[in-house]
Every structure is written in structure tokens, then in C-alpha cells.
Amino acid sequence: EYRSAIRQRQKESELVYTNELHDCLVAKDHVNFWKSWKSKFDAKKLPSHISGTSDSAQICEHFRDYFSTAASLPSQEQSHIPVYNNDFLSRLNVYSGFSLFSDEYFDSNNIHNIIHNSPKGRAPGLDNVTVEHLQYAHPCLSSLLSKLFILMFEEGYVPDSFKVSYTVPLPKTKDFYSKSLIPRDFRGIAISSHIGKLFERCLLSVFDDYVRTSDYQVGFKKHMGCRNAIYCLQKYMRYVLSKFWKC
User: Fold this and answer.
1) 32 to each of 35, 36, 108, 116, how far by Cα in Å?
2) pTM of the entire predicted model
3) 142 band by pLDDT with thresholds 50, 70 and 90
């Protein structure tokens, strides 16, 4: 019975992998297909020595010091924060915009659609709630979240659990066995609450028409990346060189 249970568990694990890969193939989602493939079959052991130590507590301290420094503002920028805050408050006092009706923007149907269009397979936050928990929950969840978001919006209050996250360090280089790594060789990925992300997506659906970025921004934008920046640089260099040679 023990050996049979082990074999059954192995078959179930293989079936889970097969179903995920099959779903990606049926949906013709080659990006998530290869992400799923690499996460399951190309997983590599992460480095165990950081900054010359293998002690987990010391490594955590190194990462904490590095990421806290990287996320802090320079003293010169911090000195301007009160000025910006006062300017914002003075403009807010004389601002007259359109009326907001929270019942309309945080509609349960809208929340339901956002939940079921959210990508699966994402890591849970500190509350251990995943996207799958929200998608396979009782249909009344959308109504309950709608009431919660309306109260948050009207009272101007955000729960503390929406403000906290944990940081996962990922190596910037793939060949991390050939060198001694330090915290600077890692990029931090912040994992926050999925319910908090759902609230942010609802706000974005409301104010999307008012949140615009410059056409020259290529980072942190969908379907934009290094290739767009390289293309703009090439066009600019060709323009400058054509003007130079004409002179």
C-alpha cells in the first residue's frame, strides 16, 4: 500500500504538469507555456553563498540592508517632499472635478470579470491567498469585495495587509556559479496581496483615462521594452549624423 501510494502521488504530480502545459498549448499561449516548462523541468539550484557567507540569517540581513537602501530616497529629494505635499494640498483645496459614485465603479460584475481575467499561477502574498482562491470561491465573493472596496473608497482607508509585501531576490545573471555573488547581483521582486492587487485593478479601470504616460517612456509599459529604446536611439543617431554630414 505504501509503494502504491508513492506511485499514485507520482502519477498525480505528472498529471498536474501535463494539464498546465496542455492548457497553455490549447490557448496558444507560448509565453506561459515556456514559463511553466522552465519552472518545472529547468529549475536550477539557487546559490547558497552570498557575500562570502552561507548563514541564512546573515544573508537575510545583507538583503535587508541592500534593498532598504535601494528603496530609500536621496536626502536631496527627501527635502523637497514637504514642498510637494504643500503644493498638492493647496491645489486640492481649489480643485473641482467630476463626482465619483463608488457604487458604480466598484460594481460586483466588474470585480467578477477582473478576478476571472487575472493570470493564474502567481505566488501568494503574506495572507497565503492566491488568484485561484478568488476564482474558485463562491460567487458571493464579488459582492462582498464590492462592499469592502466601496467602504474603503468612501472612508479613504486601506487595510494594513494591502500595504505589506515580501521581497524575493532573483539572480540577475544566469551563470551565478562562476562568481562570488553579492546582494547587488540580485533584483528584488515584491509579492503583495492579490486582494490588494484586485482593488488596484478596480481603481485603474476607473481612472485609466486619466492616467497617461509619455510616448517616450518604454519601461514598465505593456508591449514596450529595450527594442523600442534601441530603435529610438538608432533613429536619433541617424538624424544627427545626416545633419552633421550635410554641414
Assistant:
1) 5, 6, 29, 17
2) 0.63
3) very high
